[in-house]
Amino acid sequence: MKRDEFDTWSRDRLEQVEAALERWVPALAPAGLGDAMRYGVLDGGKRLRPLLVLSAAEAVGATDSEAALRAACSVELIHAYSLIHDDMPCMDDDVLRRGKPTVHVKFGQAQAMLAGDAMQALAFEVLTPEDDSVPLALQARLCGLLARAAGQDGMAGGQAIDLASIGRPLDEQSLSDMHRRKTGALLQASVMMGAACGDASPQARQALSEYGAALGLAFQVVDDILDVTQASSTLGKTAGKDADQNKPTYVTVLGLSAAQRRAQTLREQAQAALARSGLPDAAWLSVLADKVVERDC
Predict the structure, then answer these.
(1) Computed from CA positions of residues 43, 44, 50, 51, in that sequence, does the dihedral angle turn out positive or negative?
(2) Number of domain units in the chain
(3) CA dist list (Å): 201 to 53, 79, 193, 196, 198
(4) pTM as predicted
(5) CA gap 102, 273 in Å, rounded
(6) Residue 28 · residue 107 · CB < 8 Å
(7) Do the domain assignments include residue 172?
(8) GO terms for biological process (predicted)?
(9) Contact 266/218 with Cβ under 8 angstroms?
(10) Of 206, 232, 288, 292, which cross-links 239 as Cys (Cβ 3.0–4.6 Å)?
(11) Domain range spanning residue 198?
(12) Domain assignment of residue 246, yes or no
């Protein structure tokens, strides 16, 4: 499938996601909270997670476009809230995100904390509309997938390990365990939430889960590589931050060349899992795997 076809497809889907986020993230939340929320999630970011949701939904022949769109927006809200909190002085203490000042720099620490809290809650509100536009059983399934990916066994647990690992040597297995939680869990959940919106065989679901796991880890390996090979102006966030904070990364544990090879191996694993799925319409998932590894920001 040609990349220009993917570009057209992704541009159309991202316009839908941006329009939905514009509608669902409230501008009129009390005391300026809405402004901080919207600053933290609108008009920025790769939107990889929403694209994974929507491409997986299409791959399994989902007919419920409302559920898929809501799932796509909910994972982006969780991702954006996590970035707001991660950037705060009590976490990674960063001042630049998506090419602009971080939320706590712009609005203050208290407002940033509340904005993240409100966006986390909003993600589940988006998944549970009061009308009958999304079947109740599907609402429950999507909420469960997202909650597990964001909680102690996923993103929050991975961040806890990350903070506890500053200045400590980690082997590759321990590093991978951390990043499967911190970064990989939400990317894998994005794929599985999209798959939940359609009808796929157990074999296809297992293959998609393996695809998402490999892709999620590949994303973090590439992130670690870019942190030492790209400038802040290219990344849209502070380059070299992990080294400055003495955090273990795939580059410090493996070396740059080995980390680059690891990213390629994970891409191959993701593509192999996708091939095992037997899904005839998984071309966009395949392109996304390539783009994750080939990206320069």
Answers:
(1) positive
(2) 1
(3) 17, 28, 15, 11, 10
(4) 0.96
(5) 37
(6) no
(7) yes
(8) terpenoid biosynthetic process
(9) yes
(10) 232
(11) 3-287
(12) yes
For residues 176 and 217, is the Cβ–Cβ distance under 8 A? yes
> Which tokens belong to 231?
């400038």
Q: What amino acid is encoded at 47 in this protein?
A: R
Apex CA 191: angle with CA 55 and CA 115, to 5°?
Answer: 100
| Amino acid identity, position 279 | L
N-terminal to C-terminal alpha carbon distance within the chain: 23
**pLDDT tens-digit profile, the chain (297 residues):** 567 899 999 999 999 999 999 999 999 999 999 999 999 999 778 999 999 999 999 999 998 799 999 999 999 999 999 999 999 999 999 999 988 999 999 999 999 999 999 999 999 999 999 998 999 999 999 999 999 999 999 999 999 999 999 989 899 999 999 999 999 999 999 999 999 999 999 999 999 999 999 999 999 999 999 999 998 878 888 877 787 788 899 999 999 999 999 999 999 999 999 999 999 999 999 999 999 999 988
Copy the structure tokens of residue 24.
């669902």
Establish if 296 belongs to a structural domain. no
